[in-house]
Design goal:
The complex is a heterodimer. Chain A is mainly alpha-helical. Chain A has eight helices and four strands. Chain A has one domain. Helices cover 64% and strands 7% of the residues of chain A. Chain B is mainly alpha-helical. Chain B folds into two domains: 32 residues, no CATH class; 107 residues, no CATH class. The radius of gyration of chain B is 23 Å and the shape is elongated. Classes of the chains: A mainly alpha, B mainly alpha.
């Protein structure tokens, strides 16, 4: 039993949902964990705007409550990313992906800037719509194979997963924050407050790396 | 030149939603072309629905204090699965005998029906679902209070 991510070295059992650690998933998990710890302990940046062609500059005022809320969302995003990295269940993976999408919206929706909030709203609509193909993909996985367990898919004893199910899963993940729908997120980066905004980017990257492994399973 | 035009189109974030909707439409059209999709009869958690039962849709049958067999993926991980709906508290039993829709209450009252699939075999899903709702509520309340 081996997947592209390697042989599971440890399996944690939550009823029918298994959490497993392969060299691939544990690497992604540790990356998400490290960045979440960084988010917890680091002090956020103060964004400075410099007037083009002159010496004028000004630092943006950011309230403490706003930063606290965004840190909370960034930590939640990190936890969701960690869950998505190690879960061994297709439906559970889609849930964690949806959670990453909504926490990304939360990270930037707290910013007091109409432009950023407009972008966050548009991205929120995409993330909301993306849950349709995401969960539909998981449903087709269940219907076609009779199982949602990635461990069972790894064994190769189940019927093959239809291509359309994989495509739905991928477009759902892409809608939760990948290019080309990333453009709305690029606008969000006008929001001050690294490392919180960087968590949006990192979580999307991690989810994408994981979905590549997931679609190659069955 | 084409890339520049695409980039110009994408730089307006109001175009992102229509683009995603278009991509989804194409995918679902492709999905129709892939029909029929194979269906495996050997599904997890099968059940027969008895619409006349007051515990519908959570009635999995079975006399009280007797465990009902549930086709779970890893049976050994859920030793308590199948025991939940076969046991009702006296209050729940009273409600099930006096109201026709006891099954819709789930956990809305003490001793209400707990869906064993959700709470025994797929408990982690329940935790994540509730967390998503909590996060959404936190965002909405923060924005509402700020405005």
């Amino acid at each position: 039993m081996a997947s592209i991510g390697g042989i599971p070295s440890y399996i944690l059992e939550f009823g029918d949902e298994l959490v497993y650690f392969t060299p691939y998933t544990i690497t992604l998990f540790l990356l998400a964990l490290t960045f979440t710890v960084l988010v917890i302990i680091s002090r956020p940046e103060r964004q400075v705007d410099i007037a083009f062609g002159g010496d004028a500059y000004r630092a943006k005022e950011i309230s403490l409550s706003e930063m606290r809320f965004r840190r909370f969302m960034a930590i939640a995003c990190g936890l969701a990313s960690m869950g998505a990295m190690v879960t061994g269940d297709i439906f559970n993976f889609t849930l964690f992906t949806a959670m990453v999408g909504i926490t990304n919206v939360g990270i930037v929706a707290a910013v007091k800037s109409p432009h950023v909030q407009d972008a966050a709203y548009q991205y929120g609509l995409v993330a909301l719509s993306a849950t349709v193909p995401l969960f539909a993909g998981a449903a087709v996985y269940a219907a076609a194979t009779g199982s949602l367990s990635m461990i069972e898919l790894m064994k190769g004893t189940l019927p093959a997963v239809p291509l359309i199910a994989k495509a739905m899963l991928v477009i759902g993940v892409v809608g939760e924050g990948m290019a080309p729908f990333y453009a709305a997120k690029a606008e969000m980066f006008r929001a001050p407050g690294a490392p919180y905004v960087i968590m949006c980017s990192l979580s999307s990257l991690l989810i994408f790396l994981r979905v590549v492994e997931v679609v190659l399973l069955g | 030149m084409i890339i520049r035009k695409i980039s110009h189109f994408l730089c307006n974030y109001e175009n992102i939603m229509p683009l995603f909707a278009g991509a989804c439409t194409l995918l679902f059209i492709a999905g129709f072309l892939f029909l029929p999709i194979q269906y495996t009869d050997n599904q997890l958690y099968p059940k027969t629905i008895d619409r006349n039962s007051s515990l519908d849709p959570y009635d999995r049958g079975g006399p009280p204090f007797t465990q009902v067999t549930i086709a779970a993926q890893y049976m050994e991980n859920s030793p308590a699965a199948g025991l939940v709906t076969s046991y009702l508290t006296p209050f729940s039993l009273y409600l099930s005998r006096t109201t026709p829709h006891m099954g819709t209450t789930i956990v809305a009252h003490p001793g209400g029906i707990i869906d064993e699939i959700l709470y025994n075999t797929r408990g982690l899903d329940t935790v994540v679902e509730a967390t998503i709702l909590f996060i959404a509520f936190a965002i909405a309340s923060y924005i509402y209070r700020k405005v």
